[in-house]
Design a protein that fits this description.
Order of helices and strands: HHHHEHEHEHEHEHEE
Largest sheet: 7 strands, mixed
Distance between the termini: 31 Å
Shape: globular
Radius of gyration: 17 Å
Number of strands: 7
Strand content: 15-25%
Number of helices: 9
Length: 220
């Protein structure tokens, strides 16, 4: 049985050459974000944005919840994949970052599909549960502060519909999850969530060694 190949820079460039479909609007948003402090590290890879769009389409999603907007690259990818009456509710602590993406959402013709909620995510998630009830989202994407990943996951489980998909980014967290010297709160929270997901009877789960680690959890 073949083992997994190592994703060398040459392999990554090949994959991009034969599969990536990043258009000028997405490319421009990526370039503008890369110029921000920590921008390159915080935004999703182009390939991951494309995967998110594919997952939205495959799941037939009409309602998406995104926990962590930043400049809205992933938001744009998912909004484009929705039907015209679909909605992405996207959460961020600071409104200045989604404001950067708003121009690009408008240019792409999907701004009306995007509902930005600014504030502490735990409070916003509680408000969404009161507003829309449980089982109200087809797909949830978690990509926010890592220390609260366990809290966000539990909220996602409440808000996702049965057989809904939860996508969790950064579950390998720059490789720190396997570094015995990494004990910071963010790494500890990601490790704890990863360990709990393996045995969580509420979901079917698969961790992908793509980008910085992407975990897919389907609510049973």
């Amino acid at each position: 049985m073949a083992d997994q190949i190592v994703a060398t820079p040459e392999i990554r460039e090949y994959v991009r050459a034969v599969s990536l479909r990043e258009d000028p609007i997405l490319a421009e948003l990526r370039q503008q974000t890369a110029g921000l402090p920590g921008g390159s590290a915080m935004q999703v890879m182009a390939e991951e944005g494309q995967l998110l769009a594919l997952l939205v389409g495959l799941s037939g999603a009409r309602s998406v919840l995104e926990i962590g907007t930043f400049t809205g690259y992933s938001t744009l990818c998912m909004a484009r994949a929705l039907p015209p009456d679909g909605t992405v509710v996207t959460l961020d602590l600071d409104g200045r970052w989604p404001a950067i993406g708003a121009e690009f959402w408008q240019r792409a013709g999907v701004a009306e599909r995007i509902d930005v909620r600014i504030g502490d995510a735990t409070r916003t998630l509680a408000a969404l549960a009161d507003e829309q009830g449980g089982d109200s989202f087809d797909l949830v994407f978690i990509d926010a502060d890592k220390a609260n990943y366990g809290t966000y996951y539990e909220a996602a489980l409440r808000l996702a519909r049965p057989e809904g998909l939860i996508v969790i980014d950064n579950t390998l967290f720059f490789g720190r999850v396997v570094d015995p010297d990494s004990h910071d709160p963010d790494t500890a929270a990601v490790r704890a969530l990863n360990a709990s997901l393996r045995d969580d009877p509420r979901v079917d789960v698969s961790m992908l060694t793509m980008a910085d680690g992407i975990t897919l959890a389907r609510k049973r």
